[in-house]
Amino acid sequence: MSGTARRVRYSVLVSLDGFCAGPEGELDWHPVDEELHRFFNEFDRQADTHLYGRRTYEVMAAFWPRAEDDPDLPDYVREYARIWKGLERIVASRTLQEAPWATRILRDGVGQELARLKSLPGKDIAVGGPALVSQLLPLGLVDEVRVSLAPILLGRGRPLSMAGAGAVGLRLVDTRRFGSGVVHLRYETVPPPAGD
Fold it and tell me: All domains of the chain, ordered by start, with CATH?
């Protein structure tokens, strides 16, 4: 991959026991304070496209479109809402009937579409949703996997499952510890040896 190619990045916040959401999909356990939120803001500022799985899109679309106009929210939260609304949004789903907020639904061919988007000029592409990224990892389309480990044991919830992705080599390229106790790990994917 050339140095000018768009990168595809997956980022997830996960409990120490491996859950990315509570049993009903709730995210109220996330220790996202101002420091961590501003870090995530910067992550998405480096992208111009978000490709979501259905569940992740529905969580995002339920809150972010209106957050910018809520005066009770901190400025860094409203800043993220502005960033989010400025992104191209695509949701990969065969069953979603409509996707408001100028979001395009991709019914099939997600790997081909992502490969096409990567070949175009632009900023990075952020991928959201473990089921979706598990389809894309074996295709060699994901360049970075970022895991933020939250200092909490949920005990139950929706696990971060990459079932079906197969073995994917990762190389740790950066770590960061936040005041909240969250530890951020940034990995680059390692292409399999030639002939595999």
Answer: 8-190 (3.40.430.10)
Report the side by side order of strands in the sheet with 124-128: 103-106, 88-92, 47-53, 124-128, 8-15, 144-150, 183-190, 169-177
For 126-138, the pLDDT digits (tens) are 999 888 999 999 9
Each residue's pLDDT tens digit, 57-99: 988 998 999 999 999 999 999 999 999 999 999 999 999 989 8
Tell me the helix, strand and coil percentages in the chain, rounded to 5.
30, 30, 40
pTM: 0.89
Tallying the residues shown for the chain, one arrives at: 196
Taking Cα atoms as reference points, which of 172, 196, 171, 167 lies closest to residue 184? 172
Residue type, 116: R
Please report the DSSP string for 13-72 in residue order. EEETTSEEE-TTS--TT----HHHHHHHHHHHHTEEEEEEEHHHHHHHHHHHHHHTT-TT
Q: How large is the C-alpha radius of gyration of the chain?
A: 16
Q: Which helix (H) or strand (E) holds 1?
A: none
Tell me how many degrees the CA angle 137-191-176 measures, rounded to the nearest 5.
75
* pLDDT confidence band for 4 (50 / 70 / 90): low
Question: What does the alpha-carbon distance between residue 178 and residue 164 come to, in Å, rounded to a whole number?
Answer: 32
Mean pLDDT of the chain: 91
87 sits in which H/E element: none
